[in-house]
Amino acid sequence: MKALLLENIHPLAVEILEGRGFEVELLTRSLSEDELVEALPGVSLLGIRSNTNVTARVLDSAPDLLAVGCFCIGTNQVDLAGAAERGVAVFNAPFSNTRSVVELVIGEIIVLARRLAEKTEKMHAGVWDKSAQGSHEIRGRTLGIVGYGNIGTQLSNLAEAMGLRVIFFDTADRLAHGNAQRMKTLDELLERADVVSLHVDGRPGNAGLFGAEQFAKMKPRSLFINAARGMVVDTESLREHILSGHIAGAAMDVFPIEPKAQGDVFESPLRGLDNVILTPHVGGSTQEAQEEIGYFVANKLAGFALEGRTELSVDLPTVSAPALQTGHRLGYLHDNVPGVLAAVNQLIAEAGANVVGQYLATTGELGYVVTDSTEAIPAQVVEALAANEHCRWVRTWDV
């Protein structure tokens, strides 16, 4: 089977997949929709990061595609409903780069509070500006975290250790860490925070979450950080509030429109502004994080393709089947309707196979059952299941 990895995914992913028997092609850039349509026939596994979009058209052009690995946190660049409809598993790395993102945000809070970006620029220009004007400690300041998930909670812990007071807002019911305080509304957080840091996901409802209205409600001379999703923030409104002096500084790692390849021109209304840090979507781009992501996602892809395991899939039912050491396995993805499991077991029993393990789960309209046996699953069982009107796909594995 062939794996296509895009956007300069860590070499460890290549090593793992090749070690499991895959033919791997590694590209350093993303591919456009047209390029993907042309490249995917014959490809079983696709690895991407945040700049490659897997649309319904792309999925339709990939009859051999088994799974998509997002070597990052977000999966909004993939048509998840379309992938599930076609039985294509999608995996991501929800935990592997959280520390890297948090360390970047902590560093940006300090740099913005001390106005170090401006100091550095002046020093490179030969200007000695030894002044404390506008420079502050972060100790005792209030950090407002919008989105209290994996990254938000870890940021909360580190920020408290550095003397920041932490408040947070999340639409989900999240447990407060340490002395962090939950805010009932986003407006309440904006009124109280000296620093606002966004850590929301890429769901469509978050598009345009932060615009002129939200910036106007922030405390005068507060700081703003976005290391979440580019489409969440209206950058034109942010520019206006920085120029007016209402926002004292900002750090942006993600943007509504990002260049597709290394060296492409970056355009943004935030370019050239004082005390604004612009970084090229590198929140999770540390060697440690990329290696961990490469290891994690590559193993999820191989585990699904070679053993039918769907642990932590974001679109298919999650079945935590053990690694297949010896024996035979049947994987059956089907519509979530009554009687499927009984039919599977009856067919296997009639064929005389001895079942030694069975694992199943349902998610929405889909169900998935994995059955292990000591004997090879007879061809007539596979054919009967494939002919069922509720079958999405049926596969077997033998070790």
TrEMBL record:
UniProt-recorded Gene Ontology molecular function terms: phosphoglycerate dehydrogenase activity
Key words, A-Z: Amino-acid biosynthesis, NAD, Oxidoreductase
EC number: 1.1.1.95
Short name of one Pfam family: ACT_AHAS_ss
The UniProt record lists the keyword Transcription: no
InterPro entries cross-referenced by the UniProt entry: ACT-like_dom_sf, AHAS_small-like_ACT, D-2-hydroxyacid_DH, D-isomer_2_OHA_DH_cat_dom, D-isomer_DH_CS1, D-isomer_DH_NAD-bd, NAD(P)-bd_dom_sf
Domain D-isomer specific 2-hydroxyacid dehydrogenase catalytic: 4-309
Domain of life: Bacteria
Secretion signal, residue range per the UniProt entry: none
Principal EC category: oxidoreductase
Residues annotated as domain Acetolactate synthase small subunit-like ACT: 332-383
The protein's annotated pathway: Amino-acid biosynthesis
Domain D-isomer specific 2-hydroxyacid dehydrogenase NAD-binding: 108-283
UniProt family annotation: Belongs to the D-isomer specific 2-hydroxyacid dehydrogenase family.
Name under which the protein is recorded: D-3-phosphoglycerate dehydrogenase
